[in-house]
């Protein structure tokens, strides 16, 4: 699976064009619209791979990519919002309740709250790729919060293993990106390109995993069936 994920984008005739566009979009992601476009492409990658379509998407239909990417970013915000709010409320309560001096009990409470918040954020990060996969399949924002569909996926050992693989790919890409960022002038762009490539590879893994655990109905692309998986 790792080799397939790394080779996925490389198998496209437009690999350099797609990688450069994606890298530039991530580089200017602070402007939001480029970030939405990059994540819209990721949503398309997940959708195609989950349906057994091996054709690597290209950057086209920018309007749809923007909409899908904005929804994917919104999904990430919602999933991280609850752990963040819980952490802020608990830490604030401990600090206010301790007065000017935080004793050993308050320090222990802060440590526990910090660990709890980190744990909740990790749980959100664990669920987020599956949520994106379901959204990509249904193209409904609410699908990313469909507990009945997501629960068995999240408890599946295959998903857990593939999630760790996808995280490893992103972390490896981040290390290379950090090293490239040290280069003058072109380092930031090269790092962004590597980061985008790693993100695509990671969500290729998620798409393939979704295809195994939650087969999707056939769809038509260019007048031909992209998969013969039965609808569930």
Automatic annotation (TrEMBL):
Keywords: Membrane, Transmembrane, Transmembrane helix. The chain crosses the membrane at residues 20-42, 72-96, 108-132, 160-180, 186-206. The keyword Protease does not apply. It comes from the Archaea. This is DUF4013 domain-containing protein.
